[in-house]
Specification:
This protein is α+β, with helices and mostly antiparallel strands. Helix content is 39%, strand content 21%.
C-alpha cells in the first residue's frame, strides 16, 4: 500500500509559488469545473495549490470544493509525474456537480500532465 497522506511538503503555501505556476505553467481547462495549471518544479515532490474564490460560493461551498480536490489529488498522486507544481482553480460548476463526475474529470486532467 502506498503513501496516501497529504503532508505540508506537498502543498503550495506561498503567494510567489502560486504566481510562478500561474504565469509560467501549462494551462488545461476542465470544462466549467476547473482550470489546472502545471509547472515542473525541480524538486522531488508533487505539490498542490488550490484557489477557490468567493465566486464559487459561500465558505461552506468553497471548503467542500477544496476538500474534494485534495482528496482526489491524495488518491492519485502516486500516478502523477513527479516534480510538478499543480494549481487548481475551481469553478462554480464544482459546487453542484457530483463527486463521481468531479473525480473522473479532474483525475483525467491531473494524469494528463506531462
Amino acid at each position: 500500500m502506498g503513501d496516501f497522506s497529504f503532508s505540508k511538503l506537498e502543498r503550495l503555501t506561498k503567494r510567489p509559488e502560486f504566481e510562478k505556476v500561474l504565469a509560467e505553467g501549462k494551462k488545461n481547462r476542465v470544462g466549467k469545473l476547473c482550470t489546472v495549471f502545471s509547472l515542473p518544479n525541480g524538486l522531488d515532490k508533487k505539490r498542490l495549490g488550490i484557489i477557490a474564490s468567493k465566486k464559487v460560493g459561500n465558505a461552506v461551498a468553497r471548503n467542500r470544493v477544496k476538500r474534494t480536490i485534495r482528496e482526489i489529488f491524495r488518491q492519485i498522486k502516486h500516478q502523477i509525474v513527479p516534480a510538478t507544481d499543480i494549481v487548481v482553480i475551481s469553478g462554480k460548476e464544482m459546487v453542484v456537480e457530483s463527486y463521481k463526475v468531479i473525480d473522473e474529470k479532474l483525475s483525467n486532467a491531473l494524469l494528463a500532465i506531462r
